[in-house]
C-alpha cells in the first residue's frame, strides 16, 4: 500500500488511518474498553518509533509473519527502548490477530518524518469522542488549548509542565508552538496517574518532542512523591504550568496524607474583622481535586512563572470558595480570566468552565486583570463543527488569542476586579457596556439599571413560589415554570396546574395581573427569557425560578410592553448573561437582577413607538387566539 503523501490536508489522512484502525480493533478484537484499545494503539506507535536496528525490525517482521505473541516479542522490545514507560506488569489487551493488522497499518504511516502536530491533531481528534471522562477528565478542545498557549507564550528552552496531562494535548501543542515560532524546544513534563493515558501521552511526546519530553505515571497530587522524582523528570521550578485538571464533587480527595500537604486541604474561615479568609489548623475531610490542583500548580512554578488552568465556574463565583482567591493573591497576581461558553466541553459534560491565568510573584499587584469573554467555541452542544447550512461554527478563542496582547481591545479588556470573591469573567466584560451605550446613542436613551428604576419607583420585583409536587394536577390554574416561557408568552397548557385553593394561597402575595412580566432568573438555559401576562392568562402562579416585574406606569417613562421590548435587545440580553452565575450546570442571577441595565429613551421617536406598537399588537392578538384555542383544548377527552 502507498505511503501517505503530505499535503495541506494530510492531517485528515492521518485521522482516517487512526479512526479505521480504532474501529477495526473495537469491532474485531476481544477488547471493548476504549481506553484499552487506545492504549494498545499507543504501544504500537512506540513499537514503530523505537525500531531503529535490524534486530528490532526482525522482531516486528517475525511477529507480523505469525511468530510469537505481541506480549512475548513486542513488549520486551518497547520495555527495552522505553524503560521509563513500561514495566513487567504491562500487557497488550487486544488479541494478536488484531494487533498484527494494526501494526501493518501503522507501519504504512511515515511517523518519523511526519510533522508532529499533524499526528497529534489526528490522534487527539480520535481520542476525544471515545474516552469517557468518568474520572473527571474531559479533554480540552484544540482551539482552547491553542488559545491558552498563545497567551502564555512559552519562551524558547523553557520548562512547561502539565500535572494532569490526560492525552498530552497541551504539551504536544506547546511543541507545535515552538516549531511555528522557530524556537528551540524546551523541556516538557507530563504527569497523569491513569496508566493508559500515560502510555498514550508517552507515545505522542516521543513524536512531538523526542529529546526533551518526560512523562510520569503518578498521582501528581501527592507532592511527597513528586519530590522523589529524578531531576530529569522533576516538575518543580517550572516556567509554565498549563492544565485542565479533573474536576467534580463526585471524585473528592479523601486521603488525609495528601490533604495535609496542601494549605487548601485545611478548613478556612472568613474573618469579619479582617475581611479575608484565614486558614485554621483543622484538616478537611474531603476536598475537590480541582482546588488542590490550583495549589499544586502554584507550588510547581518558579518565581515569575505563569499558570494557565481550566476550572469549573463554581470556583469563580461561589462565596464559599473565597479562600482560594485569598490564597492565590498571597502567592502572586491574577493576570487573566477567560469566560468559556458552556458548550465548550459538550457533549462530554455540561459543566460551565472558565480559564485562569496566574503569575507567581513576590511583587503583588492585582489592580488590573485582563478579561475576555468567548461566546462561541467552534462547535455546538453535540460537538458538531459545521452547521446544518454547511458553515463552520464561530470560534472566539482564536480571536481572543490574537487580541490578547494587541491594543485593539475588540475581545480583551483590562478590568478592575471590584468584588474580590466574585471573579466570573463576563461580569467584568466591558464590551457589554459599549454595546449598551451604542444602543442608547441610537435610541437617544439613558442607560439605567433595574436597581435605579426600583429606587425611582418605576418598577417593583417580586419572586415566585414553589407549590410542592403534591399540588400538581389538582386543578386548572396554570403553575408557570421556566419551561413554559417561550416567545414572550406563557404556554397555553402548562404541564402542571393547581387547584383554586392553592391559587388563593399564593395569589395575594404574587398579585399577578395583565402587564406583569415574568422573567426566568434560575435554571439551565432560559435565563433572561421573559413573557408578559394578559387579561386572558393573568390568573396563574409563577414558579420560584421566575421574577415578577411590575411597571408603575404612572411614574415610569416606559410601559410594560416597552420594557419587554427593550429586554429583547442583544445588548441587554448580553448584559443579563454577564450577571448569571453557573454552579456546575445550574445558573442563577440572584440579587444581581438589580444590576440589569437597559437604555431608556429620553424621548420616544415615531420609529421606536411604531416598533413597540407592532410588538404589542402581535403579542395581544396571539394571546387572544391562544386563549380561544385553550377553550377548545379543554373539551378534549382523556383516553
Report on the architecture of this protein.
The longest helix has 28 residues, at 606-633. With 639 residues, the protein is of the alpha/beta class. The strands form 7 sheets. Strands 3-2-1-4-7-9-8-10-11 form a 9-stranded mixed beta sheet. Strands 13-22-18-20 form a 4-stranded antiparallel beta sheet. It contains 21 helices and 25 strands. Helix 2 (34-50) runs parallel beside helix 9. It folds into 3 domains: 10-107; 116-428, Vaccinia Virus protein VP39 (Rossmann fold); 433-633, DNA methylase specificity domains (Adenine-n6-DNA-methyltransferase TaqI, Chain A, domain 2). The chain is elongated.
Which residues form runs of ≥5 with pLDDT under 50? 1-12
Name of the CATH class of the largest domain: Alpha Beta
**Total of DSSP H or I helical runs spanning 4+ residues:** 21
Radius of gyration: 29 Å
- Provide the CATH topology of the largest domain: Rossmann fold
Q: For the record, what is the CATH homologous superfamily label of the largest domain?
A: Vaccinia Virus protein VP39
Give the total of domains. 3
Helix content: 25-40%
How are the elements arranged and paired?
Elements: H1 10-28, H2 34-50, H3 54-64, H4 70-81, H5 96-107, H6 116-130, H7 142-152, E1 159-162, H8 169-180, E2 187-192, H9 195-208, E3 213-217, H10 223-226, E4 238-243, H11 256-259, E5 266-271, E6 276-283, H12 289-300, E7 301-312, H13 314-317, H14 322-331, E8 332-339, E9 353-360, E10 369-373, H15 396-403, E11 412-415, H16 430-443, E12 445-449, H17 450-455, E13 459-463, E14 477-480, E15 485-486, E16 489-490, E17 497-498, H18 500-510, E18 517-520, E19 522-523, E20 530-532, E21 541-542, E22 546-551, H19 560-567, H20 570-579, E23 581-583, E24 586-588, E25 597-601, H21 606-633
Parallel strand pairs: 1-2, 1-4, 2-3, 4-7, 8-10, 14-21
Antiparallel strand pairs: 5-6, 7-9, 8-9, 10-11, 12-25, 13-22, 14-17, 15-16, 18-20, 18-22, 19-24, 23-24
Helix pairs in contact: 1-2, 1-5, 1-6, 2-4, 2-5, 2-9, 3-4, 6-8, 7-8, 7-15, 8-9, 16-20
Amino acid at each position: 500500500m502507498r505511503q501517505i503523501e503530505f499535503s495541506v490536508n494530510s492531517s485528515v489522512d492521518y485521522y482516517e488511518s487512526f479512526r479505521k484502525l480504532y474501529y477495526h480493533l473495537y469491532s474485531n478484537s476481544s477488547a471493548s474498553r476504549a481506553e484499552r484499545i487506545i492504549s494498545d494503539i499507543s504501544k504500537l506507535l512506540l513499537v514503530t518509533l523505537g525500531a531503529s536496528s535490524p534486530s528490532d525490525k526482525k522482531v516486528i517482521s517475525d511477529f507480523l509473519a505469525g511468530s510469537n505473541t505481541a506480549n512475548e516479542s513486542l513488549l520486551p522490545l518497547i520495555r527495552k527502548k522505553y524503560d521509563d514507560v513500561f514495566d513487567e506488569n504491562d500487557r497488550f489487551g487486544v488479541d494478536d490477530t488484531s494487533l498484527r493488522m494494526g501494526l501493518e497499518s501503522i507501519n504504512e504511516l511515515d511517523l518519523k518524518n511526519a510533522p508532529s502536530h499533524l499526528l497529534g491533531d489526528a490522534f487527539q481528534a480520535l481520542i476525544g469522542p471515545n474516552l469517557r471522562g468518568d474520572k473527571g477528565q474531559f479533554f480540552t478542545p484544540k482551539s482552547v488549548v491553542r488559545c491558552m498557549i498563545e497567551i502564555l507564550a512559552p519562551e524558547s528552552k523553557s520548562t512547561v509542565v502539565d500535572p494532569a496531562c490526560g492525552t498530552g494535548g497541551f504539551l504536544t501543542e506547546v511543541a507545535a508552538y515552538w516549531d511555528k515560532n522557530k524556537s528551540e524546544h524546551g523541556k516538557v513534563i507530563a504527569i497523569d496517574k491513569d496508566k493508559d493515558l500515560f502510555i498514550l501521552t508517552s507515545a505522542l511526546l516521543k513524536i512531538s518532542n523526542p529529546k526533551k519530553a518526560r512523562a510520569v505515571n503518578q498521582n501528581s497530587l501527592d507532592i511527597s512523591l513528586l519530590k522523589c522524582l529524578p531531576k530529569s523528570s522533576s516538575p518543580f521550578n517550572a516556567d509554565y504550568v498549563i492544565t485542565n485538571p479533573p474536576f467534580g464533587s463526585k471524585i473528592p480527595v479523601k486521603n488525609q496524607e495528601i490533604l495535609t500537604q496542601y494549605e487548601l486541604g485545611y478548613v478556612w474561615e472568613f474573618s469579619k474583622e479582617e475581611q479575608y479568609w484565614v486558614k485554621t489548623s483543622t484538616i478537611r475531610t474531603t476536598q475537590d481535586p480541582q482546588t488542590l490542583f490550583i495549589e499544586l500548580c502554584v507550588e510547581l512554578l518558579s518565581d515569575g512563572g505563569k499558570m494557565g488552568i481550566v476550572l469549573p465556574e463554581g470556583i469563580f463565583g461561589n462565596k464559599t470558595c473565597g479562600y482560594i482567591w485569598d490564597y492565590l493573591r498571597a502567592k502572586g497576581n491574577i493576570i487573566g480570566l477567560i469566560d468559556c461558553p458552556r458548550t465548550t466541553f459538550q457533549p462530554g459534560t455540561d459543566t460551565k468552565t472558565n480559564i485562569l491565568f496566574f503569575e507567581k510573584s513576590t511583587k503583588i499587584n492585582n489592580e488590573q486583570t485582563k478579561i475576555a469573554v468567548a461566546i462561541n467555541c467552534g462547535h455546538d452542544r453535540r460537538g458538531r463543527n459545521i452547521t446544518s447550512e454547511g458553515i463552520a461554527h464561530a470560534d472566539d478563542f482564536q480571536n481572543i488569542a490574537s487580541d490578547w496582547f494587541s491594543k485593539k481591545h475588540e475581545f480583551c479588556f483590562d478590568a478592575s476586579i471590584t468584588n474580590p470573591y466574585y471573579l466570573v469573567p463576563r461580569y467584568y466584560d466591558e464590551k457589554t457596556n459599549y454595546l449598551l451605550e451604542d444602543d442608547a446613542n441610537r435610541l437617544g436613551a439613558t442607560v439605567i439599571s433595574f436597581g435605579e428604576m426600583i429606587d425611582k419607583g418605576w418598577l417593583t420585583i417580586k419572586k415566585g413560589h414553589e407549590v410542592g409536587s403534591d399540588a400538581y394536577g389538582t386543578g386548572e390554574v396554570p403553575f408557570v415554570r421556566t419551561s413554559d416561557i417561550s416567545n414572550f408568552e406563557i404556554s397555553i397548557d402548562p404541564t402542571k396546574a393547581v387547584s383554586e385553593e392553592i391559587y388563593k394561597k399564593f395569589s395575594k402575595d404574587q398579585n399577578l395581573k395583565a402587564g406583569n412580566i415574568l422573567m426566568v432568573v434560575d435554571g439551565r438555559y432560559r435565563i433572561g427569557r421573559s413573557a408578559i401576562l394578559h387579561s386572558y392568562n393573568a390568573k396563574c402562579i409563577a414558579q420560584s425560578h421566575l421574577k415578577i416585574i411590575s411597571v408603575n406606569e404612572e411614574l415610569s417613562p416606559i410601559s410594560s410592553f416597552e420594557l419587554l421590548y427593550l429586554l429583547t435587545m442583544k445588548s441587554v440580553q448580553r448584559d443579563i448573561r454577564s450577571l448569571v452565575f453557573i454552579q456546575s450546570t445550574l445558573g442563577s442571577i440572584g440579587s444581581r437582577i438589580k444590576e440589569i441595565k437597559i437604555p431608556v429613551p429620553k424621548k420616544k421617536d415615531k420609529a421606536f413607538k411604531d416598533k413597540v406598537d407592532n410588538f404589542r399588537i402581535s403579542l395581544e392578538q396571539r394571546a387572544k387566539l391562544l386563549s380561544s384555542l385553550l377553550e377548545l383544548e379543554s373539551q378534549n377527552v382523556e383516553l
